[in-house]
Amino acid sequence: xxxxxxxxxxxxxxxxxxxxxxxxxxxxxxxxxxxxxxxxxxxxxxxxxxxxxxxxxxxxxxxxxxxxxxxxxxxxxxxxxxxxxxxxxxxxxxxxxxxxxxxxxxxxxxxxxxxxxxxxxxxxxxxxxxxxxxxxxxxx
Length: 140
What we know:
The protein is α+β, with helices and mostly antiparallel strands. It is built from 5 helices and 5 strands.
């Protein structure tokens, strides 16, 4: 069974200037750190806080209450995270169904209490404040 939490084609959603990443701005590593912080909120059941710290267009696409319901329905049945290992990360400037911008797609191999093998995809987008923020979350 595949659990999907997100919006649109990847729920990615926040256009950002390409120049920020090119001119010594935020890096792929910064995106990975942002993804780790964002997914930690999900681990702790702080779904509302994860919405608060999401990209602006993500917030525009789903209400806080709807996000809390969807995130809880996807995560709660899995139980606690037992382990999470970074599988890969990739910097991207164009993604299907999302405006051009600066994104980092982070893949984790995760073991949950009630799901031994899962793949989490966390996408962060560079926002207008030149910070990466959560923009998409999927569990496969």
